[in-house]
Amino acid sequence: MARDEDDDDGLPQIGEGSQKFLDQAKKGQARNFLLVCKGNKVNYLAVRKKPVKRNELNEAKKAGYKGEGYFGVITGKGMELVFNLSTADGYTTEPVKDKILKDFLEEKADFKCKPTIAIVATLPEIPFDDEDFKNPLIARFLALGEQITRVLESNPHAESELKQTTSEIRVLLQEADFDSATPRVNALELRLQELLNGATANPAPATTTQALPPTSATPTSTTTPVVDNDELKRKLEEALNRLVPQLKQAVVSFPQRKVELLTPVALIKKQLDTGELQEARQGILSVGQLLKSVLAQGNVSSDTSTSTADPKSEYDRKLAALQPKYDRALKEMLGDTGKFRTVMTYAMEQSEAGVYGNAIKALDRLSIALEQAIASGTKETDVVPDGRVGTASATLQLRMARLSAARGIETLETALRASGDTRAAEIADVIKNIAGRFPNHLETLLENLEKATASKDNETANQIKITARKATDDWLAYLTKHELEITGCEKNPWNIPVSIKAPIHSSLQSILTQTLA
Predict the structure, then answer these.
(1) What pLDDT, in 10s, does the model give residues 7-63?
(2) What is the CA radius of gyration of the chain?
(3) Per-residue pLDDT tens for 451-496?
(4) Cα angle 113-114-117, degrees, rounded to a multiple of 5
(5) pTM above 0.90, yes or no
(6) Are 490 and 499 in contact (CB under 8 A)?
(7) 335, 342, 348, 309: which is closest to 160 by C-alpha?
(8) Separation between Cα atoms, residue 442 and residue 516, nearest integer Å
């Protein structure tokens, strides 16, 4: 790309560390970006995991970069990457053409991909990854997901409050501002307990953590004396010690979650030693909740022949059984479809994170709610016209098809590599590449389309539809081009169940001819 008088001579055009984060984006990990453009040129690009702050746009200009600044989130996987910009941040048009961004990435970052710049209603969230889960505060925060779902079932009015609070905490955690995030996580835990206690007439089942003593920061009645610090510390230590045998049992049963389970305990012990008793108390409560959710993975419903030792299979079975009811409720607008979508999204996120115990419990509750809604026949006011497939239902169908295909391919790939045969390993590489062609950016586009449609932002909705149609066409073309390899996966000699083309093709056709029509 030729330089002219508008170029920023002497200034780096790729932010420090951006190459690493671009590679992560290519592997399907959503990442933040800052882009500076002038006219039809890209003058600077920085990619990273931490959120981009607005004042950084001004700092870039002060540093000498010419043009306008744009910040957003990269989604997608493999060669197909989407640079999302939000109308909520004031962006209404793409700063440059996709090809200009493509050429810039190739020339300045030696990075090849097929980027698409998309204008969306709301930016996708950056999910936490395996490295994040090792942080005890993040583990505490994520463990509250199940509790939040239970709170919203009986306190739907608290959805806006909790959504704002969790969003603010998420940003602080992603910025690694743990000093600011800690008191907010503590406050959230207390607020959830208040909502749960106020929403249920009967007391919750007793657990080893519910007998925790009040602290000086905990509201007490006039008849309840405040426990002195030495006595409080002793009782907290006893409560923690009661959890230890259960924690050891959980680690034996779920060794892959050892870090998540045991790391908070070390922090609690340190807090007890340094006199941070309120923080230690909340930490014990969080560990108790996490422990319950983990152990629940070994106590899923026994009304099936599916082994409870394989919660992933149990989750897949329940999700498949639930789908017809979910589709009907959303299509006919039966019951509280907003809540149904919230619980289903939570279940899908928990399954993708490997927390199948939480996901299964969410599906069980959702199944009961759906059955009640269908039996009552109560309709919401905004019925999907002409029997078309609604956006939320289409997103779910695509996600289920994509995840099912990816899991089947992963199982097949593992079997091939375990065989020790050189030819099998080569085939495994081809199979892995097929799985890499199933990104989730179309699901993100559909979710943003639903938000834009709900807010009656027709201009944004139409722009998203154009981008989504292109993404759908690309998927369909890929299925046709690689039909031989895909058929080979589905009809593998190991008889490993792999279903790719039919469910994905059906879902994409439905999206193209109905949802995006």
Answers:
(1) 555 688 888 888 889 998 888 888 999 999 988 889 899 998 888 876 777 777 777
(2) 25
(3) 788 778 888 888 888 888 888 888 888 888 888 888 888 887 777 7
(4) 120
(5) no
(6) yes
(7) 342
(8) 12
pLDDT grade for 309, boundaries at 50, 70 and 90: very low
Contacts of 203 (CB under 8 A, 6+ apart): none
Give the lowest-confidence range in 69-78, 204-213, 402-411, 501-510: 204-213
Helix, strand, coil percentages for the chain (3-state, nearest 5): 65, 10, 30
The per-residue pLDDT for range 400-447, each reduced to its tens digit, is 778 777 777 877 777 777 666 677 777 777 777 776 666 677 878 887
Q: Are 228 and 234 in contact (CB under 8 A)?
A: no
Which distant-in-sequence residues (6+ apart) come within 8 Å of 380 by Cβ? 333, 334, 335, 336, 337
- Provide the CB-side half-sphere exposure for 271 (13 A, CA): 21
Q: How many CA atoms lie within 13 A of 473 on its CB side?
A: 7
- Amino acid at residue number 388: R
Instruction: Identify the helix (H) or strand (E) that includes residue 233.
Output: helix 229-253
Residue type, 136: P
State the Cα–Cα distance between residues 425 and 70, nearest whole angstrom.
43
Q: Which two tokens mark 291?
A: 């422990």
Q: Which residue has the tokens 């509250």?
A: 144
Burial letters 61-90, b for 16+ CB under 10 A, else e: eeeebbbebbbbbbbbbbebbbbbbbbeee
Which residues are registered as beta bridge partners of 80? 77, 114
Read off the amino acid at residue 8.
D
Separation in Å, CA 39 to CA 36, 52, 69, 489: 10, 22, 12, 47
